[in-house]
Amino acid sequence: MHAMTLATVALNEVHPNPANPRYDLGNRDTLTASIKDRGIIQPLVVTPDPEGGYTIIAGHRRHASATDAGLTEILVNIVPDADAATIAAAMVHENTQRAGFTDAELARGIQGMLDTGATAAAIAKGLGAKRDTIKNLAAAHAAPEDTRAYLHAGEISLDQALALADLESKDADLYATTLAAVEDGQNPDWVLRKAREAIAKAEAVAQAEKIAADTGVTIITERPSGWDGKSKHLKSDEEIAQHHGQPCYGIYPTVTNDGEAVVQHWCTKTRAHDPKAETVEVSEDDKAERRRVIANNKAWDTANGVRRAWLTESLHPRTTIPKKHIPTLLALNIATPYSEEHVREAVRIVAAVKNGAWPGAEAHAKATVNDGATLRTHLLATIARHEDRVSKTVWRENRTGFAAHLTLLADLGYTLTPPEAHYVTTHNNGDHTATQTYTTD
Ligand SMILES: [Zn+2]
């Protein structure tokens, strides 16, 4: 800036600069009180306004407080020939000196400098910033007003503001729901990631639809497992070419881990390519496997029904628990909260008790559960917890806890059904259902 003239001018001749990047002047109580006491110590920097009076370059906050303090005159440094670019730059530079200058305000100042014709490179050099930073700030200033408000409030970062602006340009509805989620206090990075994935997924679907329209290939809507031996992700051009026109071939629109839209190529019936698979013999095996699964499901359903009828009709009406079950019950109570690890520990304790390795177990159980009614309640609650967790998954897999549960019921007088007995006797070999077919009689 050129030579300045120090002068005292009428306060009402000094006007705020409409391009001041600062959004608000903050709490000025202390400053106003100080100006009332001691007047303006540091002069404002102003420039003559062609329409009369002076426009502030630096000192908006002092000007506002001087007005509140009732001053009629004010000390200013007049810059005689400041052009728009100089003023814009000076306002940014002045504000970068103060604490609390937000990215939203800096963005507004940068845009003001760009508006006067300054280049991003020149601004970057003047501020000692990277050119990309200047470009990002300008882009943030172009963000929707509510995003800028969040940036100004410090609720979101500059990167998040840019991501929101980008989202708004692509999908206004998704932008609105994302911003609402941020307002609800959800993590901005998380909701932005979800939004980007949704956009990428829509892009992938659009790409897939175009391919389908051009080639007639089927679009797969749910991701094939790839691990079941029945489907295969086709990755090479050669594999894809071999599948063109075949009924097993489909495309699956999805999103990569990096959030990019992608259309995958899949063979959904790999067995159709296995010459052996087409023989009647193997196909009969498939049918037999299917029958076995259905039969097992029926057997398990029947077993569940039989067991629960016994629990209702025989166990629940009982008011006392046989003394010999106390250690087992204690162990099962140790097994809650239910987890495989706890259950294994419980099973170990039961074994220890049965082998006489823990003679204090009964006394310990009695000290923990001191009357028959409470003991009974504990028992029923323990059984109920295990029954709650019974599902086809439990039946198919090898769960120590379920086996221990069935063992307890058998101890209490329940006659295990064949699938239950099989479960109990094989629960440690890790492969109890692979080829076994249960019967219900
Ligand atoms: Zn195929």
SSE string: EEHEEHEHHHHHHHHEEHEEHHHHHHHH
**Oligomeric form:** single chain
Q: Describe the strand arrangement of the main beta sheet, using strand numbers.
A: 1-5-3-4-2
Q: Which percent range describes the beta-strand content?
A: 5-15%
Largest sheet: 5 strands, mixed
Please mark out the parts with pLDDT under 50 across 5 or more consecutive residues, or reply none: 335-340, 363-371, 430-435
Q: How confident overall, as mean pLDDT?
A: 79
- Tell me which ligands are bound: zinc ion
Shape estimate = elongated
Helix content, binned percent: 55-70%
Radius of gyration: 39 Å
Please name the defining characteristics of this protein.
441 residues, alpha/beta, five-stranded mixed β-sheet, four-stranded mixed β-sheet, 19 helices, 55% helix, binds zinc ion, Chromosome_partition/occlusion, ParB/Sulfiredoxin_sf, chromosome partition, ParB-like N-terminal domain-containing protein, ParB/RepB/Spo0J
